[in-house]
Amino acid sequence: MDQDHVVTHHLPCCLAALSEALAEASLEPKSPSSFWKRLSVAASGSIDRCLSGSFSEPVVAQTVSRLLTPSGRLLISSSMPIRDLDFFSKPYTDFWQAPVQPPMANRGASGIDGVISTAAGALHPGHWRCGHATRSECLSAFGD
């Protein structure tokens, strides 16, 4: 599992035990250093300048990443939209505005029909909400 021999600490335990131990330790979360914040702002500005005035997959990914409401769901299909959203999404500065539901993905052999069916299922009232009927939006990023 560590073919490059770079692991310095190995914790043989289940995730539940690890999360409980970390919670009991009451570790204070650290914010990123000012160096990483400045680097992130500079990289974001550079990407924005490169993408401005164009219409491309990265621009669509950036836009899609900002359209969801806190109750919205995102369905990503295929490999390129997943990569574009991973590379070009804009982080939310206000935690409370970020979507609560994790994104969904569908990369099966069923093609576009399967992706559309998955999106329709994600919109079904009560989906991902333990059977409680709710109305929500679902945004899908298709392509390749």
TrEMBL record:
UniProt superkingdom: Eukaryota
This protein's name: Uncharacterized protein
